[in-house]
Write a structure and sequence with these properties.
With 367 residues, this protein is an alpha+beta fold. The chain is 40% helix and 23% strand. Strands 1, 2, 3, 4, 5, 6 and 7 form a 7-stranded mixed sheet that branches. A 4-stranded antiparallel sheet has the order 9-10-8-11. Strand 3 and strand 4 form a beta hairpin. The longest helix has 26 residues. It is globular.
């Protein structure tokens, strides 16, 4: 009896990237500003193998599946989530990395369109998966920038660097301070007696529908009106002296300037262990989003208002771009379980929607 020919197995590889929470620094990253965030213990894993036919295929139990030829790969109109993956592929190819094809599957526990940056997690995980599959490496900041370009060019969202940087550079038990102008990344110890509660509003975000890009363009219009390249270079005193700019541009600029100041103050407060004062900055940030940047919603405002009345909650705000999604609340750890229940029941009582409310821990970045 002839021996059967042995077919070599192609080893599978995997990569994981976490979501992130934006603690402070809302919409500052594309204005060369300051951000304070953290990677969280929820994310996405991509596992798969290479193939030699020039086809990229990926499957997700939540989002579906796609198979696309990589010959002249272009943004897709169907399965639009695939553009986050294909954008990364295109950027890697442009960087001189030959991607011959792959088959992979996405799994994880990071909710989509909730303000926890599932898009950046998908991009970072895809990039790391392909780099591992083809035995290549990129420096961490270069990896983050590649993912940002992918989102700009394929997904149509002119995002800043906040999300991929947090996913790449996250450190367990630490917030991440990021200066988007100098590209300084600094870890800041986060008190272990505090917890972070995420409450999803039940209203999904879709940033590619234009609201995010519209706010972005308004901030650039404000910078031009003020004669600067970026709102990072504007102070409250500058705005007080300039009453000649359009009211809407003035409001957008006030938000960005205020967020930069809150991030500066927050780093000091965290280093000093002043949790209550840090929580007050989170409250102020949400009021700025509500009144000046107008990227909150009725549902997000309701979650914030409910949380502020709960014992043990020190501060609360929307997290991420806004226009739906989720809130983040800073809570004394000893009161977290009760706060989760009260936030869930209070929101359901007023809206009829049972929200997803959960505690997230600050975690390490992508691997």
């Amino acid at each position: 009896m002839a021996a059967r020919e042995r077919v070599p197995r192609i080893p599978a590889v995997s990569a994981f990237a976490p979501g992130r929470v934006e603690l402070l620094g809302n919409h500052t990253d594309y204005q060369e500003g300051l951000v304070l965030g953290a990677a969280i213990d929820r994310g996405l894993t991509i596992r798969g193998t290479s193939r030699e036919d020039g086809v990229a295929s990926m499957r997700s139990s939540l989002m579906g599946e796609f198979a696309v030829s990589l010959a002249g790969v272009q943004p897709q109109t169907a399965n639009r989530w695939s553009n986050y993956v294909l954008g990364v592929v295109a950027e890697l190819i442009s960087a001189g990395i030959s991607i011959r094809g792959f088959s992979a599957e996405i799994s994880g526990n990071l909710p989509a369109r909730s303000g926890l940056s599932s898009s950046a997690a998908l991009e970072v995980a895809t990039a790391l998966f392909l780099l591992k599959l083809y035995h290549r490496e990129l420096p961490p900041m270069e990896l983050a920038k590649l993912c940002q370009r992918a989102e700009h060019r394929f997904a149509g969202v002119k995002s800043g660097l906040l999300d991929p940087v947090m996913s790449v550079f996250g450190r367990s038990g630490h917030a991440i301070f990021f200066d988007t102008r100098t590209e300084e990344v600094r870890i800041v110890p986060f008190p272990n007696d505090l917890s972070l509660i995420i409450a999803e509003s039940g209203i999904e975000r879709e940033l590619s529908d234009g609201k995010y890009n519209a706010r972005r363009e308004e901030t650039f219009a404000a910078a031009r009106a003020l004669g600067v390249n970026a709102l990072r270079d504007v102070s409250f005193a500058d705005l007080e002296r300039r009453n000649d700019i359009e009211p809407i541009l003035r409001r957008r600029a006030l938000h960005i300037v205020g967020e930069n100041e809150r991030v500066r103050r927050a780093v000091v407060l965290l280093e000093q262990g002043k949790a209550a004062e840090f929580g007050e900055l989170m409250n102020a940030s949400h009021e700025s989003s509500r009144k000046l940047f107008e990227n909150s919603t009725t549902a997000l405002d309701l979650l914030v208002d409910i949380a502020r009345e709960i014992p043990g909650v020190l501060g609360t705000r929307l997290t991420g771009a806004g226009f739906g999604g989720a809130t983040i609340s800073l809570c004394q750890r000893s009161r977290t379980d009760a706060a989760v229940q009260q936030l869930r029941s209070g929101y359901e009582k007023q809206t009829g929607i049972a929200p997803s409310v959960f505690v997230c821990e600050i975690a390490d970045g992508a691997a």
